[in-house]
Each structure stands twice: as structure tokens, then as C-alpha cells.
Amino acid sequence: MKRMKLFMNGLFYQTRKYNLPVELIMVEWNPPEGKPLLSEVLPKPGPEDVMTTRYIVVPNAIHQRFKRRDVIPLFQMIGKNVGIRRAKGEFILCTNIDLLFSHELFQWLADKKLDKSKFYRANRCDIPDKLELDWDFEKQLTFAENNIMTRLGKDYRYLNLFNVHPIFYKSAIVTRVLNVLYGWYRDLFEGKPQRIFNNLDTAACGDFTLMHRDAWLDMQGYLELDLYSIHIDTFGLISARSLGYEQVILPPTACSYHIDHPTGWEAMTPIQKIKFAEERPGVGFDVAWETAMYMMVNKTRYDINPEDWGYANDALPETVFPAPKG
What we know:
Order of helices and strands: HEHEHHEEHEEHEHHEHHEEHHE
CATH topology: Spore Coat Polysaccharide Biosynthesis Protein SpsA, Chain A
Oligomer: single chain
CATH class: Alpha Beta
């Protein structure tokens, strides 16, 4: 609840600051019986706000259709499909509710220089869970900027480098030389599909993937699988790239700040991940790699989702709080 309130208050603040009318869709999947809905407890737009908030509920009756309904209480990526199919905006950002956006990122959004033939990625920077709700947003953002623990995502200037020790980024000249040298090596020893896949910015891509609504519809959203959501966001990037959409990685300062929490995948030890996967099976990265090689060559869709993916034909309960100035 605290992380969600920080996320929403930040969006209210920045949409006002940059005068950017947006629609925030919160998909509440399988809400616990006997507890208040998110629409009842989260912040509402004020008189000066330009952000509309929509709450769409996916009831327990739909959740009960899944085999793993008892061990996976939330099918995150299918929930995002619910939002994609109902979004009214021209461009749709799939993100999560434990983030703050940097001012540089929000300024870029406000500039509205988006291309429907591209998909956009932003780095995720993990920060300690020490933000307080009574801090003003500028104080929260200053804390985030000064307390980055880890950064996930590629640097658009050095796409050939990945899993490189951070010390190599201390010198721009050394980094540029390494990037060029490794680029030559990859030209000699990697096939084009492999190089395209390795250049995809897949790390924490579920936290920020932005593209035109037509592109989301073209790729049929995220895969709707009765599995834990690990790597399903990666399959989304594979699909978009296979269909010809060009990746754009934003500058490192145009990032999101992820509020760390012990239940997050990145926060788990390898042993904890083994136990987690035993209870909530998902698709491995090896399958993602093999799928990418196949799709890059054949330039195809998955064609796994039903035609009404995102439960497009279901009348789901919805609560809307219009922006007074939207």
C-alpha cells in the first residue's frame, strides 16, 4: 500500500508539473474477499490534477479458470493485457506500481516525440525502501537519485556491452573502445538473430515498455500463460522486434526508481529463486533465447493468445475518477 501511494502521488505531481494529461489504469486482479478495493483506498485526483485514474477489477471467478490459481494469486502480464485492451490513449506504457519516474523521463514523455514504429525502454534503478509518504515529491526524488543500489537495463551508447563489470564504465574512452572491439567480435562470430536478441533491453523490461496501441494490438499483447510471469515481459520485446518495431533505449538519467522489497525477483538469492520456481513454475531464459532465434528468422507472431486476449469481451467492473482539468 505504501509503495502504491508513493507511485500514484508521484504521478499526480509530475502530470501537474509537466501539464501532461494521462490515464492511469490500475488492474486489480482477484481482489481478496472482505477487503476494500484499491479504488476505495488509493489517492484520488484533486482539483488541479490532469490525470484520470481507472480501476478495472478482474474478479475471482475469472481467476478460478487457471490451473495454478492457488499458488499464483495474481497473473500479472494477463492483467496488463486487460489494461492494454481498454486503454484510450494513443501510446500505452506498461509499468508497475512500486516506481518513481525521474524528471528527465517525465520531461521526455511530456515532449510527446513518440514514433509508432518504435518501442521504448528505460533503465530501472533500485533504491532502498526508505521513502516516507510525508516527504514532498522533490525530496523523495532527491533521495532516489542519491541512493541507487543497482541499475538494470542497457546503456544505449554501448549496446555491445552486457554483463560488464561497472569499473569499465568509469572511463568513457575505455568503454567506447571496448564497445567497438566487442562489436567487431560479434560481427564475426554471431548470427544476426542472436545479435538482435542480445541487443534487446530485457532487464526489468516489465517496469517500462512503451509503444503505440497499434503495436500492442499487432503483437497481441503479452503471452497469456498459466505460469508465473518471469520472462513474459522479455517475450513481449521479442515479439515487438520480430514484427519490425525498432527499439529505443532512453538515456540513463531518464530512468525509473524501483522501491526495493524482499519479495521481488531481483532481491531473492539463487536458492530462494529455486524454491520460488518450485511453487510457481515459469518459462526459463533458455526458452526465451530459442524462441527469439525462431521468431527473428520467421518474423512471426506467437498466435498463442485467444482472440479476446485481455478479456476484451468481458464486461469487467470499473471505477473511474476523471481528472478535473483533464
